[in-house]
Design a protein that fits this description.
single chain; 316 residues; alpha/beta; 10% strand; Glucanase; hydrolase; carbohydrate metabolism
Length: 316
Amino acid sequence: MWPLLLAAVLGLSPVPALARMPAVDSVVADGLYVDPDGQAARYVRNLERSGRDDEAAIMRKIADQPAAIWFTDARAGFADRARTVVARANKAGKLPVLALYFIPGRDCRGYSAGGARTARAYRNWVSSIAGALRGRRALVILEPDAAADSVGGCLNEKDTATRLALLAYAVDTLRAHPGVAVYLDAGHPGWHSAARIAPALRRAGATRARGFSLNVANFQTTDANLRYGVELSRLLAGKHFVVDTSRNGNGPAPGQSWCNPPGRLLGQAPTLRTGQALTDGYLWIKRPGESDGACGKGAPVAGQWYPAYARSLTGS
């Protein structure tokens, strides 16, 4: 029932729920937008221009699937980029997934450190993004790790309060546009218990968002996320959730390693048809093949294309 409601709110054609998920190499996207300018797509085009068609076919298992488009800085033109992406997607009758990742003090663990310099700069940035989405349809993943990092993490009490207030501001600013579905990130089942993170999520506006997101850039199994999501939903007024399945096809790595761990595989294909009452979608939020950070031999900095790792995720 919920996928039909979500489709109606976002102006999409309704689709029936499926009991089973499509295989990862089955291009079934439920109207989700495939970014033609993503690093995977550009890499495939370069391979094809070089006559490396066999390699291109392997990489198309990533490039042909819809994945989130990330907004991580305030470089000139960021709002225009958001406006262009969403307009392009909607014109094609597709729903884009945007990941916003610019909270002050972002990733205090260091691999993706950065974010807005001040709370005021962040509010202005969010307002600009929201303005770019006005009158359009989009699914927004709001600030991966931000709420989870505020729970027993590297923020003091004052910074924690500021962060949760900024997340609440972002939820309210984005949700003011009827076509925008906001999912506040809630970490993953291998991090905090549902009972521990729920109070922070409530302070951050989760009960006013469309729902919450799980497993972004992580490797926890879909089943583990479904159990965790249902438990967390009970503590958040029955909110629905989406799960990042981009790299969870082989579950978490030994020791819960999260930075380009070997032996991981692509997960379930992106879809809004989950067959689960509380689960609005399985999405590729982390873009497979883009590095988690310069944490191993040959690994580039976070967000850069990592061809060897991309290939390994396909199981080839």
